[in-house]
Amino acid sequence: MRPFILRLLIALSMALSLSTAWAGVPNNRAEPAYAEEQTILQAEKDSRSPQPGLADKDSGRVHMDRHYLGQYGQKEGTVIVQRGGNQWRVLRNGPLAMLSGTVLVLALLAVFLVAKVVGKIKADEPDTGRRIQRFTDWERHVHWATAITFIILAVTGLVILFGKKLLIPLVGHDVFAFIAYIFKYLHNFVGPLFIVCSVLMFFTFLRRNFFRRIDWLWFRKAGGMLTHEHVPAGFFNAGEKSWFWLGVTLLGLVMSISGLILDFVSFGQTRYVLQVANYLHLLGATFYIAAAMGHIYIGTWGTPGAYHAMRHGDVDESWARAHHGIWLDEVKAGVPVGTFDKRVPPPDHPPPPGAAPGNVPPGVRP
Ligand code: HEM
Known about the structure:
By secondary structure, the chain is mainly alpha-helical. The chain is built from twelve helices and two strands, in the order ααααβααααααβαα. Strands 1-2 form a two-stranded antiparallel ribbon.
C-alpha cells in the first residue's frame, strides 16, 4: 500500500511541475493585436505632437477614435490593453467625479436653504377628521418598491464612484474592499429590479400626470412656495408631474438603458460603448439623486401630511383642500380625476364676476 501512495505522490508532483512549466510557455495562439499596436505607435511617432503622457486627458485619443470606428468590433476579447481606457479613467475620476460631487452637495445645500427660508407648507385649516382615500394599496406598494430599490442603487452607486476617495481614508483598504465587493453585487442585482418597478410605476401613475392648462398657473407662481399661497391643483400638481416626466421617466430611461449595457457585458458591446454608457450612467445618477433629494424633502418634512398619504393611503379633507383642491372637488362630485381641470380658465383670464359656479376654478375659494 505504502509504495502505491508514494508513487501517486510522485506522479502528482510531476504533473504539477509539468503544468507549471507549460504555463510558462507563451501561448502561440494568443492574439495580442501586436501589429495593430505597432501601427498606432508608428502613427503617433509620425504625428507632429508627441503622444501625451499617461496622466494626460488626451492620452489614448487616437486609439479611442479607431475603436469607435469599429477597429476591434467582434474581436473585443483579443484586446489586452485599450489605451482609450486611460482617457475614460482620467475623465471619470477627474472632471466628472468633481461635477457629480459638486452637484450633489449643491442640491443638499439647496434643500436646507428651502427648508430654512420657505419652511413647511401646511394646510390653512385644522384637520376636519374626515379622511379621504388618496392612494390604493397597489399604488403605495409600487411607489415604495421603486423608492427602496432607488435608494439602494443610489447608496451603492455612490460608494462605487466615490468610495476609493472618501471611504478608504476612513475605514482602510480591507474594510473598503469588503464593502465595495458587496455593494457592487447589490447594485448589479437590484438594477434590473429597479427597472421592473419603474415600468410599473410609469403605467400606474401615467394617466394622472398628463399636463393640463391649470398647471401653467402652478409654474408661474412657483408652486406658491415664495408667497405661501395654495395654488389650485388637481390630483398631482405641476411640480409632481415634472418629477414624473423628467425624473422617473426620462432619467429612469437613461439609467435603465446605460445600466443594462454595463450590467450584461456579454452582448458584444465594446469597451468604447461601456465607457460612453458609464459617462451617461454617472451623469444621469447625479441628476436623478439630486432631484430625488428635493422630492424626498417635499414629500416628508416640507409638506406635513404627504408622507402619511403615501404610507397609509389617506389624507384629511383640509389637507386635500389646501394642496389639491381641484382633486377634492372631483372626489366630492364623484367624477373621474382630471374632469374639472378642463373647466379651469387660463390664469390670465379669471372668470367674470357672477359666472356660473361650474366655471370657477374649484380649488380657489373667495
Ligand atoms: C436610478 C437608479 C440608479 C442609480 C442612482 C445608479 C447609480 C450608479 C452610480 C453612481 C454608479 C457608479 C458609476 C461610476 O462609478 O462611474 C453606478 C454603476 C453601475 N450601475 Fe447603476 N445606478 C442606477 C441604476 C442602475 C440600473 C437600473 C442598473 C442595471 C440594470 C445599473 C447598473 C450599474 C452597473 C453595472 C454599474 C457599474 C458597477 C461596477 O462598477 O461594477 N444601475 N450606478
